[in-house]
Amino acid sequence: MTALMRLCCMHSLAHNANADAIYTTFRDTYRIRHRVSRCPHLADGGTMDRRDVNVRTSFRFRDHAGLIARKYVSAVITVTVIVMLSSMMGFGEGFVTNFIIGQCVGTCAFAFTFTALVFLRWKGPLVQMGGAALAMAAGACAGILFGAFISGKDLFFYLPERSELIVQVVILTVMGGSLFRFILNSQEKIRQARERIQAEKIKRLTIEKKVVETNLRLLQAQIEPHFLFNTLSNILSLLDTDVDRGKVMINDLISYLRISLYKTREDMATIGQEMEMTRAYLNIFKIRMGERLSYAIDIPESLRGIPFPPMLIQPLVENAIQHGLEPRIEGGGIRIAASAMPGKLRIDVADSGLGFHEGSHWGVGLTNIKERLDTLYDGKARLVLEENSPNGLLASIEVPHDAG
Amino acid sequence: MTQVRAIIADDEEQLVIYLESMLSRIWPELVICGRAGNGRDALALIESEAPDIAFLDIKMPGLSGMEVAGRCSGNTRVVFITAFNQYAVDAFENEAMDYLLKPVTDERLAKTVSRLKKEMEGDTPPAELKGVIEEVIRAVGHPATPSHLKWIKAQHRDTIRLIHVDDILFFKSSAKYTTVLTADGESLIKKPIKELSDELDPEIFWRVHRGTIINAGCIDKVSHSLTGRLAVKLKGSSEILTVSRSYAHLFKQM
Predict the structure, then answer these.
(1) How far is A283 from chain B (nearest CA, A)?
(2) Which run of H or of E encompasses A248?
(3) Contact A370 B166 (CB under 8 A)
């Protein structure tokens, strides 16, 4: 019968391990709910799951049913293993009695601990741990009484203990408890790692989807019918009035189309290529807008060979013309400059047009450029927009760059 | 029949020249009595010259061709000129308005010219455009979906910056201004929190306090303070923002 006491002691300590595992999972569940682990508007194309950031104030059993079931099964298995081992080693009163008492202790300890954790879920970790330990001890006692009642054994008859046995029991249970704790925790860790990998995968797929979307939008954007038809109208007119200028304009249109149509399908161009395309684009507008447009491109020779994503500079210029200069009666100027700074490369497009104004799709193109930069450079590049003085807009793209 | 007079308005000079030369071939009797490079000049020209016909480019600085047509009074017939634009074309199809697509072809222009001639011989008055144009401007200028605020104009140190809302961590009201926090630091705007919360996308920007709007995409963690209030910490900011009780429902299970 002392062996039975020993067994009960062991159970309660083994349940310490289980309770601890419940505690960890439970706490993590709540903590994770406090966190929006990724940007909500990146997740599944813009729908936002508010449940991710909910702080629960009421406890609902069915939300945790899975966790409870999982932990209870693992508690039952742990107890069964202990019972089998101890029965084989000749402890206790034979397998059946050991099993009944063991499961009673296990179930009570589990229920008590869990209930305590539900009530203490908003308290600090120390309070939770203390509360869980007390509840577990109370549960274990209740379990012993209950188990003894079911199996018909009188535990209190043998209460006077032999001291050397107690020492053995303590050492044994601490070792056993730690072992179970270790096994359970590593299982928990494996599960968490799997979940992390899954989350990573979702994140990667979301990013890939975004890249495809932005590329598609890019392809659509470059065939701007307004631009093409207006330019062709101008060329038709020049063929009647000024054939030489008409030829120049056709050549500029060809270089613009060639670079933009081919380069969009590639990941990288060079700053030089992008500037040539932009220059062709501006030449076309120079003919179309006449005196109303002036421009200057100032790119140091040393920067021309640096790789740069296609179709970032031209859309900035397009935006400056479309929303800044074309709608302004007097027109204005555009100045493009590139400069290398320690660790970064900066492209400035400054115009003296209308600047920021509400309405008429203002900023759609700029939003697209910003989103493309975010995708291409994973948030390490930026688009800065400032008011130009005395009027107009100064748009700068800054990308990371190692001056080699 | 008296002399028929017309004006041409287009912000691209070359296109004015081109249309004029085409018209001189197709309708040699037509007199071009004025040319304009923007909407404002076009309107002034229509008022001073009172032409029979006005060829108006739709996209012009100052006033658009539509706005000019909507404002001018009198006996002027309007022909719009536009580069390909599906919205505009759809809008025109239903109405008694004539339009030319750029690049203008001889055939299409000849059709318009014969229609104009017929109308003027038959003495049909010009179609009443004002109501129609208001309709079209509404349809074309503002495609239905009202969008949320995307760019915010803010004072950043000694410059005025345009900040994209995605870059904003939170808005906080202070004495006179509203403070905007981004990874670049603080900027100031004049718009009060109340107005902002109406204009921002409520799915992303949550008003958690009378004086605070946060970007929910940047929430790092939410915790209970000692007094039992909710407090929010955002990624990239060390500031802890309290959630007032009346806005705590934002964080509760739906």
Answers:
(1) 14
(2) helix A243-263
(3) yes
CB pairs under 8 A between A and B: 143
pTM exceeds 0.80: no
How far is B116 from A188, CA to CA, in rounded Å?
83
H/E segment holding residue B80: strand B77-82
Q: Rounded distance, CA A281 to CA A263, Å?
A: 15
A145 vs chain B: nearest CA distance in angstroms? Answer: 39
CA-CA distance, A87 to A94, in Å (whole number)?
Answer: 6
- Spell out the long-range contacts of B32-36 with Cβ–Cβ below 8 A and sequence spacing 24 or more: B32/B5, B32/B6, B32/B7, B32/B8, B33/B5, B33/B6, B33/B7, B34/B7, B34/B8, B35/B7, B35/B8, B35/B9, B36/B7, B36/B8, B36/B9
**In A, residues 165-224, which contact B (CB 8 Å cutoff)?**
none
Contacts of B33 (CB under 8 A, 6+ apart): B5, B6, B7, B49, B51
Distance CA A93, CA A99 (A): 10
pLDDT tens column, B20-34: 999 999 999 999 999
The number of angstroms, rounded, from the C-alpha of B249 to the middle of its chain's C-alpha atoms is 37
Q: What are A227-237's pLDDT values in tens digits?
A: 888 999 999 99
Domain boundary among B94, B114, B141: B141
Strand partners, B168: B182
Which pair of structure tokens corresponds to residue B104? 């203008």
Q: What is the 8-class DSSP label of residue A46? A: G
Bond into A315 cis (ω within 30): no
Question: Which CATH code is given to the segment(s) A223-400?
Answer: 3.30.565.10
Residue B190 maps to a domain: yes
Question: How many CB atoms within 10 Å of residue A47?
Answer: 9
Question: What span, in angstroms and rounded, lies between the C-alpha atoms of A252 and A131?
Answer: 78
pLDDT band (50, 70, 90) for residue B110: very high
Residue pair A354/A323 in contact by the 8 Å Cβ criterion: yes
Q: Please indicate if any CB of chain B lies within 8 Å of the CB of A244.
A: no
Establish if B146 belongs to a structural domain. Answer: no
The parent domain of residue B131 ranges over: 5-141
ipTM (interface predicted TM): 0.84
Token representation of residue B210? 């009378």
Chain B nearest-CA distance from A390, in A, is: 12
- Asked if residue B160 and residue B134 are part of one domain, the reply reads no
CATH number at B158 reads 2.40.50.1020
Cβ atoms of A105 and A147 within 8 Å: the answer is yes
Residue range(s) of every CATH 3.30.565.10 domain in chain A: 223-400
A53: chain B residues, CB-CB within 8 Å: 216, 219, 222, 251
Of B12, B38, B159, the CB nearest to A230: B12
Do both B159 and B129 map to the same domain?
no
B98 and B206 both lie in a single domain: no
B18–A237 CB contact, under 8 Å = yes
